[in-house]
Amino acid sequence: MLTRLRVAGFRNLADQSVDFTTCATVVYGANAQGKSSLLEAAYSLATTRSFRTRDPRESISHGADFLFVSGEISTAPESGPSEQVTLSPSRGHGRGERRFAVGEYDVQLAEYLEYLPALVMTGDSSRAIAGSPSERRRYMDRATASAVPGHISDMAEYRRALAQRNQLLRDGAPDEQLEPFEAILGGTPEENARAFR
To answer: What is the largest CA-CA distance in the chain?
Structure first.
């Protein structure tokens, strides 16, 4: 659960820290006062993406050199006592200029995304569900990633196997070379994990 959100250089929000101390938080105020920007900042913390623009650099405040969002989460006490963990994704104006930190350590994106699952529901969500198969697939991938730890890693492994199998098909490889990739594409994550041990 998100317990604290810190923002700097984020849209029209002042550089600030916001504490969340209950299970439900109501954000209210007049138009153009930053309600959507606050929700966008929390979503960006969780997913490293904005739900308002395809290019997160557009969320950088006018005149700011960088966008910074960090937050503290209370981890689920399934494996012991709950603890506070700090998440810090950051992004600059340069293409590919970003990093993901959990506590003091930089981590890969797939690991980072497992700490604070989030799914946004907007008017565009229903259009995505009713839209093209690729739009529905992207939305379902986001929904599954927010509910199932490890889904991002499983999806990356699936896509790697799919690309390798398709390359072998284009090269006219024999069936015995395709079989390991077919097993990955048709197996469950648990079966795939056993296959690589």
So the answer is: 65
Residue-wise pLDDT tens digits, 134-151:
777 777 777 777 667 676
> 3-state SS of 90-142?
EEECCCCCEEEEECCEECCHHHHCCCCCCCCCCHHHHHHHHCCHHHHHHHHHH
Handedness of CA 143, 71, 60, 32 (dihedral sign): positive
SS3 assignment, position 39: helix
User: Which H or E run contains 66?
Assistant: strand 66-74
From first CA to last CA, the distance across the chain in angstroms is 34
Q: Alpha-carbon distance 157 to 172, whole Å?
A: 23
Give the side-chain half-sphere CA count within 13 A for 28.
2
> Rounded CA gap, 69 and 48, in Å?
9
Q: The whole model's pTM is what?
A: 0.67
